[in-house]
Design brief:
This protein has about 575 residues and is an alpha/beta fold. The chain is built from 18 helices and 27 strands.
Length: about 575
Amino acid sequence: MDIVQPPVSIEEARAHLEREWGPWQSRTTAQVLDHVAQRYPDRPFILTDNLTWTYSEAAADSVRLAAGLWAAGIRPGDHVAVVMANFPETILLKFAAARLGAVSVSVNFLLRGDDLHYVLRQSRSKLLITMDQFRGLNYLSELDGFAPGWDAGASQELPDLKRAFVFPTGEHTSSRQVPSLDDLIALGADVTDQQILEQTAQVDPQATSDLLYTSGTTGRAKGVLLHHDAVVRTAYSSAYTRALWDGYRIAYALPIYHVFGYVEATIGVLFPVGSVVPRTVFDAHDLLTTVERHRADEIMCVPAMTVALLEQVTHKDYDLSSLSTVFSSGAAHPPEMWHQMIERFGASRLFSGYGQTETTASTVCIHPDDPVERMQTTNGKYKPAGVAGDPSLGGRLAVYKVVDPATGEEVPPGQVGELLARGPIMTRGYFDKPKETADLFTEDGWLRTGDLGRVDEQGYLTLTGRKKEAYRFSGELVQPGDVERILLQHPGVAEAHVVGVPHPRFGEVGWACVVPAAGHSPTESELIDFCRERLARFKVPARVIFMKSDDFPRSVTGKVQKFKLVQQLTQGA
């Protein structure tokens, strides 16, 4: 396949962004949208197979939604929960809440029962907008099950909830009378556009913009508080680091309730005045067809999606002549995957990064001119932020300090330790969780990421694992990432996830859960021997369990939830 080259150089793309957005002015997300809509009203912003929203149309529709929210009693600081997939209205509701200075609570629409109840109650949401049904899940029935009276604002289980509206997806037909999203818009008929625009201009960029719940890889989800200035600066930094050019288009099925799909894609394209092509579900054929239809420049995905896309292009020919870029991040990649992306997609630009909800999105990223070897061995380099950068951090928005987990002392460059982060894009804490918020920060204000890794002298970070995922075999500390990287070097391994399983003699022993590569059938002894030849004895896994990729308990970003995996393994042992 021909390699697709970008239309401009890195330097030209970055210079264009700096001219358009410098000197930097702190804004809310809605203020950024209005700024772009005033300058480029007819540019396409949201693309679907049937409809297109220009920037002026998106701004106008978000104003009318904001008018409805205002008429429904939403005021600055109030929490608005949205349980919706990647529909255009989901994006517009983000901006609508931002216009009022309200807080957008983006809820994982896969949650049900107790988990959904927990998020809606813990977030103290005053207003709820939910789908009626999606992919067979009836949200009205789910809500009825744990919070009867929710639709009338009279549920004892959700005492803060005053109003609720339903977005019909077209999957469900019911005679039940629940106010719809159209009813919300009609409710604001007497609120003028001017009133909303005046309110939009008054919102402080330092105010809280979003409450996003963590994926929960080590326990129950916590609500991370983000603020407008952090979201906007991080999004600009992503556009600047990746050198997005004028009119750039990103296709993705990543959920907007996560910072990857929200900050790096949806808000990120505002700066090159580009377009998003959001898909409500991930399907490899659908996403590749979307690239064809909408001439997307980039696919943004997590590795599990990337694997499916790579397999799909071997079965069918797609016109990917517009696709120059693949941003695949969120978990480890087998080294050969990066070469496969170039060969099968024709992409000339590959990106991966590292960050978390608490840092508003990625803080390091592969740079456009980095060689493939960097992608195979690191998670990327500190992101420059151009005019949005913090001068005290050398023009960056985040820096890391690597410390010894036991002593807290900083370790030399290249040595593994706990990653601490600092910068203006850090969260201010967890909503209504003072103890967890206090535990999140060191006494001198560094954010504890909970991750282990190393940063070399050039600023490239290599993640080695979660602090809480490490286990001790006979007194020796084992980082699962060390074992996983070796297993991924075996040609018969597509995925590898290592956990410590309780053992009466050794404390914990390593179990490697492996997904075989297509066309390969490695044996347990073969993989153990492979590790034994390359690892210290105490790091060699005691067992290898073969699984399918779909069998792993995963977070919304595709990360394996290892605490659940240990439960799964021990129950079946």
